[in-house]
Specification:
about 240 residues; Rossmann fold; 6-stranded parallel β-sheet; about 30% helix; binds 6-phosphogluconic acid
Length: about 240
């Protein structure tokens, strides 16, 4: 196991954070292209929207970027709360990326196990037994979950599989998620954390406490925390 290079980037506002995070992610993608197509896995939720919008403005050769998902709500892709839909609107529709570079988690199989298996096969085709994603974008929930890895759930304990179905505490409850074995292979993981409501979870994660986000330690990669004042201090905005 290699060492994790961990960095904390603090910003007065979520806006400044999202600009800087987008720039760093673009840099990691350019680095990824030195060895073929760059790969990125996206998370949903509200926090990354602004960063995705800025990333869409970055001057990147999108035909050389393969886009995957870190987690998905098990709802149709056109549903209001679909991560795919949000990422399409904020990042993918505005950029010239070919459809065949976009690899959403399927959510149409009656059994999410089948969808997870199919997505894992896709990831095996991309990564084989070698390195993992150039970039993974993650968020953190108030309860400390990341992707759809919730405390106490079997998905968090998974040691072999790369993609599994998961149950969230909040609606929509059915999810698909990448697991720690594949997340740990990433060259760069970027956690985006804004708002006072995330203060407790952020503190636990940074102190290596008992929460799923604290278990993300890319071996041999960088782990970057992008946090605003409100999340750091627990006051001054949500
Ligand atoms: C999801 C995400 C999830 C998210 C956190 C934080 O599908 O919802 O993968 O892990 O990052 O729940 O969400 P917010 O950014 O909305 O607070």
């Amino acid at each position: 196991m290699g060492m994790t290079d961990e960095r904390l980037h603090k910003f007065p506002s979520a806006d400044e954070l999202s600009r800087a995070a987008a720039q760093a992610i673009a840099g990691d993608l350019r680095r990824g292209m030195e060895q073929g197509d760059a790969t990125i896995a996206l998370s949903g939720g509200d926090t990354p929207r602004a960063t995705y919008r800025h990333l869409a403005d970055a001057d990147l050769p999108w035909e050389r970027i393969q886009v995957y998902w870190a987690g998905e709500r098990y709802v149709p892709h056109d549903a209001e709360d679909s991560n795919y839909r949000m990422e399409r609107e904020t990042l993918l529709d505005p950029v010239p990326i070919p459809d065949y570079n976009i690899h959403p988690m399927p959510t149409d199989a009656p059994d999410p196990e089948d969808a997870a298996g199919a997505y894992e096969e896709l990831l095996w085709d991309q990564f084989g037994a070698g390195l993992g994603f150039d970039v993974i974008v993650l968020g953190i929930g108030r309860d400390g979950h990341t992707a759809s890895l919730f405390a106490g759930s079997p998905a968090l304990e998974e040691k072999e599989r790369w993609v599994v179905p998961a149950m969230a505490l909040a609606e929509p409850r059915r999810r698909l998620t990448l697991t720690l074995p594949i997340i740990s292979r990433a060259r760069a993981v970027h956690f985006l954390v804004t708002g006072a409501g995330k203060h407790e979870a952020l503190t636990r994660a940074l102190e290596g406490g008992d929460c799923p986000a604290a278990l993300v330690r890319p071996s041999g990669g960088t782990l970057a925390w992008w946090v605003d004042e409100a999340a750091l201090r627990g006051s001054g905005g949500d």
